[in-house]
Amino acid sequence: MDQLLIAGFCVCALTVVLRYGCGRRSVDDIASLPGPPSSSWLYGNLPELLLDRPYGSNGLKWLAEYGPVHRIRGCFGENRLMVSDPVALRYILANFTTFGKSPTHRFLNPIAFGSGSLLHVTGEQHHRIRGIMNAMFSATNVRGLAPILEKAVLELIERWRSEPIDVVDVYRAMHDTTLQAVGEGVMGYNIRENENYARTYRNLVQAEATLSKAAILADAVLCKFPYSLLNILTLFPSSDIQKLVDHRHANVHLSNILLESKLETLKLESEADNDLFSILVQKNSEASSPMSADEIKDQVGTLTVAGEETTANSLVWALYVLAQNPQWQETIRQEINHWIANHSDRAVDYDQLPFLNAIIKEVLRFYSPLPHADRYCTQDAIVPLSEPIITAGKVLTSLRVKKGTYVTVAISTFHRLTSIWGPDAHEFKPSRWLRDEEVSKSTSLGPYSNLLSFFSGPRVCIGWRFAILETQIILSHLVRNFIFSLLAGSDVQPGCAITLVPMDADGKANLYLHVSPL
Ligand code: HEM
What we know:
single chain; 20 helices; alpha+beta; CATH 1.10.630.10; three-stranded antiparallel sheet; binds protoporphyrin IX containing FE; 518 residues; disordered N terminus; five-stranded mixed sheet
């Protein structure tokens, strides 16, 4: 966000804040909750949360000190709720009408993806679009994509084998490969070969993921204004908003081409391609309340962004832990070679590779690709708790939350609760997934192995099956073909760029590893 714009907005925001305060003066319990002190009225605890290195260390400190439901301060001294309590989380994530997306997301998502984007729509429109898109992401349809996903990784393997490589930025390589995989698997189109689209896409990701004190402030200021006023910003776009607008143009161009060609195939009654977008167009033509052409087109950019970043970063962290543990690479190799030797007549069933899946689950737990997400309370609510909170002489068995409160869904902190994951919750330990009884079944939250990585409730990740299959395929093929090892003296730490990325000392996202062909 441009400095000038921020300064202008700060002045307006201060006026609004001073005049109206930080929200309605209805009663809630958050002010009385324990929470970390804040040294800054302007930024509150947000820099400690968002700019933390390694990401999550402050979250874990706060968890230990104040418990799984506590207060943190946002900008201008506002109270925010930070939640990793499973009962409270289930309630919050199940009630999207009350706990919706943050005002900033509601402002920015339509600019980047269109107002019909699944990430943006709510209520009946979300229900209708989601119903049609759920069919697109069914287990059978996703399973059918294995050959497309295998092709993406085999091309990478070919490139790595054909040129002498030693040290590779696997962060970059995984992002390129997942961009190709999501393009070909979801859209039936190789996005990597469309330079303009790939460029605007990278710019968009960079603009959205740039976290700094200025971005924190801009976020806090934006939400104080009505959308009608904010929309004026798009007429005088800052450089970051321009990146969103540029990507939207690229999306419109690409989605027009894609939709036209898929509709043509449908009209000719020729055999439809098995990419998910073709399936969507087909399912939509049979739906009783179909999506409009614009609504379909708005999913192109949505699925690219939602599907690429997260999966690429899971793969990057998986390669990072494997590079630290060569014996785990060998176990995966033996596992897959054994499977192939015993089932030479069948395609690989990746779900039948226990150690590979244990690594993937532990990566999703320990390096949660989206480490936290915001929700914004749109009407006063009462949130249940799994355990009472004793505060200021009162025992709270549930929590009154007032309209206008930000709630941080602390995904990565939930993944470290010893009450759920056991006393070794803070260790990276794939073996926990090989002994079923060790992973608590008492709190079933997410769609996959009680992990919250994909969220739960009506906004649960629609692409989780795709993400798992893609990770299984790319990781197993890479480990079968190469040995990964750490560079001497390399020092990356988890940093938050909306998703969790490995950051070097300069705050740049990358991960250089030695890659040796087998
Ligand atoms: C490891 C990989 C992934 C992770 C950790 C992940 C995580 C998430 C999370 C936490 C949400 C909820 C966000 C919110 O409501 O604030 C979400 C939503 C979504 N994800 Fe994923 N995701 C992954 C991969 C994918 C893939 C591969 C696709 C598609 C190809 C995808 C498409 C979407 C879409 C469209 C939504 C919005 C759903 C809705 O609001 O109804 N995601 N994802």
